[in-house]
Design goal:
By secondary structure, this protein is an alpha/beta fold. 38% of the residues lie in helices and 13% in strands. It contains 16 helices and 16 strands. The strands form 5 sheets. Strands 1-9-8-5-4-2-3 form a 7-stranded mixed beta sheet, with helices on both faces. Strands 14-15-16 form a 3-stranded antiparallel beta sheet. It has a two-stranded antiparallel ribbon with strand order 6-7. The structure holds pyridoxal-5'-phosphate.
């Protein structure tokens, strides 16, 4: 079987030669490809085995006719994906990276974040939002959340700004847009860099602008549980800053392949941060991941519409019950991505709080997603010496909604019967709670 690679990698592009560049690495065999196919589509039955055998025969034949891609990392597919994302978001230079966390890191490095700096983080998010600030010894300051959307409350943000505040990270939690106007206004007034954690928010809008493109930086996640995925992991970083940070170089260790140094193929540069130079890291992504995300992006409008339809349906089903509030919808120009369905319960009217509701839903076979807790509750904060009780006292809304009021529910890929089952289970559970049974 001949599966020689095409010479497309700039480092090894030596033209036709008797000893080919591709000799530096192992290539793919038909068996390797079949391992991927049988991983992506799994089955046990005899019919499955027979279909798999015919695919194997076809792939073996394909392998005698085709050649593996010249590049597996940062090649043409990554470029094509970035071009499509640029068009979709209306930005230039979107950069495909390993995951959103890696994108955050580039933004934090750009801010030259270090010990002594403060970063404003909403109390309710995922650890990824603040992992880098903690890693470099910057101080995380928790901002309380809005009781309806669970997003960062700009009024509390204002209270928590100090002279040492260097960055703020609004998180569009569940894909619901943060009220960005006051966030941006405060940030500009106090010279604070804004990084949008748009992990859940790809394709959402705020007052007609794409989420992730309003702050100085925005990073999206394409992890396997997001609205669309690049085979399990993936992220995109964008920046609106002028001068524009060189995200492509920041993604790959500052390699400058446009410039050669004497007797060598490329140069390596330190990157220009806001307050000085910094050294790049490696968060390069693969061609295969780009292929995966491109395919899913091509059906993303449909995916978003289905999410919206399902949210509206469940909201309608719950409308008559004043003990629960369904997912907040968007309004003119402001469109959530409906990544998760946010359900809130009013304990006074329901007769018990969300912990009871969640237990009842679990008994009825309805999954809730208890994923987003106030960040100061995790052991890591105590271990790092934070006064977590003071943090909790400074975020009373986060405490109240987390302990008593909210949960997330899945909303996508469900049949009408499943949506009805979920809505009925919620209504029955509330009825039981009100009757004290
Ligand atoms: C709010 C939030 N921010 C950031 C991330 C991190 O995204 P990634 O897994 O792509 O690094 C996640 C992932 O679930 C998230 O939920």
């Amino acid at each position: 079987m001949s599966m020689s690679k095409k010479p497309t990698d700039f480092r090894y592009n030596t033209g036709p030669s008797t000893v080919p560049w591709a000799a530096v690495g192992e290539s793919y065999t038909a068996d390797d490809i079949m391992d991927v196919v049988s991983f992506l589509l799994q089955g046990e039955s005899a019919a499955y085995q027979s279909a798999l055998d015919s695919v194997k025969t076809a792939v073996k034949q394909l392998a005698t006719l085709g050649t593996p891609p010249g590049k597996l990392s940062l090649g043409e597919r990554v470029v094509r994906l970035e071009q499509e994302i640029d068009r979709y978001l209306g930005v230039e230079d979107s950069t495909f990276i390993t995951n959103a966390t890696a994108g955050f890191e580039i933004a934090f490095r750009h801010a030259n974040l270090q010990k002594g700096d403060e970063v404003l983080i909403p109390a309710i998010t995922f650890i990824a939002t603040m992992a880098y600030p903690l890693a470099v010894g910057a101080t995380v300051v928790f901002v309380d959340v809005d009781p309806v959307t669970l997003n960062m409350d700009p009024k509390d943000m204002e209270r928590k700004i100090t002279k040492r505040t260097k960055m703020v990270v609004p998180v569009h939690i569940g894909g619901y847009p943060v009220d960005m106007d006051p966030v941006m206004e405060l940030a500009r007034k106090h010279d604070i860099l804004v990084l949008e954690d748009a992990a859940h928010a790809f394709g959402g809008t705020y007052k007609g602008r794409m989420l992730g493109t309003i702050g100085d930086f925005g990073a999206f996640s394409f992890h396997e549980v997001k609205n669309v995925t690049s085979y399990g992991e993936g992220g995109v970083l964008v920046s609106t800053m002028q001068p524009h940070p060189d995200l492509k170089k920041a993604r790959f260790l500052g390699l400058d392949i446009g410039t050669k140094i004497e007797n060598w193929l490329y140069d390596v540069v330190a990157l220009e941060g806001k307050h000085g130079l910094y050294v790049g890291n490696n968060s390069s992504s693969t061609e295969l991941q780009a292929v995966g995300l491109l395919s899913q992006m091509h059906r993303y409008d449909r995916i978003l519409q289905e999410r919206y339809r399902n949210v509206c349906y469940v909201n309608e089903r719950l409308a008559g019950c004043d003990a629960v509030t369904g997912q907040p919808l968007g309004c003119e120009g402001t469109n959530p991505t409906y990544h998760l369905y946010l359900l809130q319960v009013d304990p006074a009217k329901a007769g018990a709080d969300v912990r009871v509701l969640r237990a009842k839903l679990a008994q009825k076979g309805v999954t809730t997603i208890p994923h987003f807790a106030p960040m100061y509750r995790f052991s890591i904060m105590r271990q790092l010496g934070y006064d977590v009780d003071a943090a909790a006292r400074s975020c009373p809304v986060a405490e109240e909604v987390f302990l008593h009021r909210f949960t997330h529910l899945p909303i996508y890929g469900l049949t009408r019967e499943q949506l009805d089952y979920m809505a009925n289970a919620i209504l029955e559970s509330i009825d039981e709670m009100q009757r004290g049974v």
